[in-house]
Design brief:
45% of the residues lie in helices and 11% in strands. The protein is mostly helical. The chain has one domain. It has a two-stranded parallel sheet. Helix 3 links the parallel strand 1 and strand 2. The longest helix is centred in the first third of the chain and has 18 residues.
Length: 94
């Protein structure tokens, strides 16, 4: 891969994250070194495109020099574990 191709791929990644995950892009723009994601924010129902988006989000955070920490237990934010007070975390958690 040429340097130009790599730069184009990075530009495409940045554009995709800004379009599909604007809150995440804003979180990565601040001064903190750490970005936290709840694991149910992506692919809670095992969607393939969500797996790809998660990988893209992690790569984007790396471009922005952020550490990524994934928190939560599987489907815990969806209330599947009997906790009626759980909220649906369909957006990314800061």
């Amino acid at each position: 891969m040429t340097n130009e191709e790599r730069m184009q791929r990075e530009a495409n990644l940045i554009a995709t994250i800004r379009a599909k995950l604007p809150d995440f892009a804003r979180m990565c723009a601040d001064d903190s070194e750490l970005v936290m994601l709840h694991q149910d924010s992506f692919a809670a129902d095992y969607q393939d495109d969500e797996y790809a988006l998660l990988g893209m989000a992690i790569k984007y955070a790396g471009i922005r020099s952020k550490e990524v920490r994934v928190i939560g237990k599987n489907r815990s934010s969806l209330g599947d574990e009997g906790d009626k007070s759980s909220k649906n975390m369909s957006s990314i958690t800061a």
